[in-house]
Amino acid sequence: MPPHSWDPPFLGMLGLAGPQDTVPPTEGSLSLDEVGSLNTRVPLFSSRQVASQCQLLQSSLGRPSSPQLPQLPDEPLSLQDAPGGLFQMPPGDPFPERVTVVWLSVLALAFALVCEPQENLSLAEITLRRLAPRLLLSLRLLGPGADVLLRPDAADGLLDRLLPHGQMLFLNEHFLQAMDRELGIKASR
Amino acid sequence: MGARVPDSPESPGREIQEEELRRFAARVSALLQGPEPGPEAVDGLQRLHLTVAATKYPRKLDGKFVELLQTVLCLPKSPEQIQVLCAAILREMSPCNDLILLSCDEIQDTKLLSLVSSVLLAQGEMAAVGQCVVKVLERRLPEGQSARFLLPVLANVISLSPESLTEGKSIGRAEIATCKKMADWLRYASIQQGMAQPSGGFFSSPRTKQPAPITEVDGAVATDFFTVLSVAQHYTQDQWLNVQTFSMLRNWLLCYGEGALELDECVTSLVSTTATAGRLLPPGERLRDKAFEYCQRLIEQSNRRPLKKEDGDLQKACLIEAVTIMDIICKQDSSYVCRAVSFLKVLHSRICGDATYARALLPIAQFFLNHSKLAAVDSDAIYKHLLTDIPAQLFHNPSLAFEFVQFCKDNSQLLTDSSSIFRQSFPNLFKFLAWNSPPLISEFVDLLPFLLDPGTTIEIFHLLLDLPCLTAALDIQAAALPASEKAGGDPAGKPATCLEAFRHPLYKSMFQYLLRTKSAPQDAPESLVPLRQLLGSLAGSPRVVQCAESVPVLLELFFRVVAEFADESLINQLVVLLLQRSDQLYEIPAFKEDVVLGSQLAMLCRLRPALVVELSTEILEFSGAVSNIQSKEAIFTHMVWAIGEYLSVSYDKRCTVEQITRFFETLEAVLFEITQLRPQASTPSCAPRAISVLMATLTKLAARSQDLIPRVSMFLSKMRTFVQSPAVTSVYCEEDLEEILIRATELMNLLKMPSVAQFVFTPPVASTQFQRDVNDSLPLALRMVTQLLEPAPGSMPV
């Protein structure tokens, strides 16, 4: 059965981008239609889970659960204290296999990375912490307007470098800087 | 079935029809076929992409247009942004039958090949992509092209469909070539820094500088070969390949490492054995060898103090990856075990005292679990440190908590061995849950069954009920600074705050028990009631509340699992504990309601009806205390119901008439007290359900010992007066009183036909299905009998 590729920018809007950017095929189980609907259902399902985990964490820390209105930051966003976490989703709905979700919340947005069980979760957290500010910057995610939905190429470009074909990379800071130079962005940290 | 396209960022999307979409696509098509597709084309493609992505229904773009997209994508002269957008739209449409044109053969540009591959993979063409990529990697790439963009494609293919590379004729050869190159990329990347791209221009000075050597993360000149932890200002292509290769190494070894032996056999049959002198390892083995070396180097490099703080995070991630890969290599080739063991032992002693490296202790422990037998190495100290110290100190680290619990789940067979330190450390494990409930509750649902056995049941029962207390205690422990020993306050007096209480002699041992790191049922203090009361001030804290919400589901699971193995003695113990603890719970508002112990009690009685007789002393004491009706209403009601159900000679031969009478008298006294016509101030007002159940149980008992029938009947007949008395009507609502009266009447009527009553209330034990539903069938039976005795007018049988 042909797998379905998740279009990263679309998923990014709903807060989801995955190292496995295609659904692993399971023999004879999914029709073309089912795969197609899986594409839309999956990000919605995961983002609900992430949102609730985020709210629960915020409330456990005694912070207000409703996020502040996003303001365009003057100085670079520090993600050191950004709330985040890990949780697992059992096999079945919506992913065929068990997956681990790594998530990060920045102001009113959440980003989630969906990993297979044996993947390096420390690296996933690092990857997410690098993706988030670059996506925020490139797509102007905290700005007004919905034009982020109209710029899949910008998100694709970033994901193509930092998470090419869903592959997480062991990049030290200098490699990251070299990559930023290639992308032509001045990364704010 | 329209599609949505936003007019502008502000206004919401409107429905557009197929026709409009077609026209729009045609316009974009014209732009794309024009001489220089510019911003307008980009804008059009972006809008199209959103249209295609946002529709729920199968998106139908014109076949010709789809063909055009594919053509534009593959055209080398197309601007990159346009290519990316075309690929995005095509991916969004996948899987789709129109994408037959697309193929990755003939594409020279590796970046483009990667882009096209993303579309083909979405179409399910793993084999085609895999073989194409491997072919390209095999040969020498044209000038300016880098293999760097192809490795991720390869990694994706093998993780999706490992066998796709071995299909077709080039079996083995593809893997061989790739293996060889990967080993080279890992081990022999350049140790000089790359050169910056020449800026050109009039004022640029010619590059005469020699390339500088690479450095380590702490600034020192590199001592050995290049790795992901090597630093340079600019990187060469092969250094990028080094990064890519290591990043996919784990997956590659997992997919093809096992088959490496076959691979190597395949090679030796293809290659002449006299080809080269010296040690020439077969490719699979060689890759493993280089990989092992690489991991060792990474582990050494992780010892350096990085100049950039963020590199520290990467060091730790590399450490974890390196240990994991070593573990995989050792599983595939046990000749590596000895080297690895000594190396990792040194690593362990280096990092075990450093809290920031705690997550790396898990793969190390896993390695020793997998291989220490083979190496005849004693690794108990490693497990002990992991299970005893780490959870106690680092429970508040959510990532560590998650991975630790996963580790336990992955090694769950160790938890079932009661002598193992894994099993004994369960109090420590629960600290993770107490602090980080929301993400871990489902993990503990998986874990709990492995922890439960006859030896741990009671301790875990108490632990679950006190889990929110544990959360509060952890909070206090964290706040209590180790330095200020004198924070105990005045030992003679009472502590003013929870913090003071932490070291106060009155509470110290209770805290210590709650916060214990090992299972210790024999050390349980007499009672934790004072501690629970003390911690009451923290009952509203968000973490405590979240933890409390996770307890009911675990309790439910607990009883389900225990019911399967518990023997008589354990069931009896649990019942007594249920009666005791039902009001000894942490005072969190919803907690007492959510923790449903009553139904668990009923379940246990159903499992083992004879316990009603065996525990008659405790049960009599419990059900005779009128105060229990208010403070433990649910469990009281269930207990009384159980008495009615199971106190019978058909369940236990030892049930005598005296016993039935004793229970009867106890319950009669209770019912008498709560149904006084002029209730005193001390009389508790209780739920009508309690009254109903008491009446029903008394009736059932009377049916079994018929001397009691007159007493019950008289009592029941007084209920009418009770229900109508002014003092009572002010306390209970009309429907409830109505219900009580109806029930009393029905029961009275039933007793007028004692043999029927006996049948209804004491069915033979064999028909347990019927007996189980008695509570439901009782009203029906009662109604039937009532109708017989008090027929409605006009329905008298002739």
Automatic annotation (TrEMBL), chain A:
Q: Which Pfam families match?
A: AP-5_subunit_s1 (PF15001)
What is one GO biological process annotated to this record?
Answer: endosomal transport
A GO cellular component annotated for this chain's UniProt record is: AP-type membrane coat adaptor complex
Top-level taxon of the source organism? Eukaryota
| PANTHER family, per database record | AP-5 COMPLEX SUBUNIT SIGMA-1 (PTHR16120)
Which named protein is this?
Answer: Adaptor related protein complex 5 subunit sigma 1
Q: Which organism is it from?
A: Cyanistes caeruleus (Eurasian blue tit)
TrEMBL record, chain B:
What InterPro entries is this protein classified in? AP5Z1, AP5Z1_ARM, TPR_AP5Z1_C, TPR_AP5Z1_N
> What range(s) does the AP-5 complex subunit zeta-1 ARM repeats domain occupy?
314-431
Its domain of life reads Eukaryota
Any one GO cellular component localisation term in the record:
AP-5 adaptor complex
Q: Where is the AP-5 complex subunit zeta-1 N-terminal TPR domain?
A: 14-259
**AP-5 complex subunit zeta-1 C-terminal TPR domain segment(s):** 443-788
Specify one Pfam family. TPR_AP5Z1
Protein name according to UniProt: Adaptor related protein complex 5 subunit zeta 1
What is the organism field in this record?
Answer: Cyanistes caeruleus (Eurasian blue tit)
Q: Which gene encodes it?
A: AP5Z1
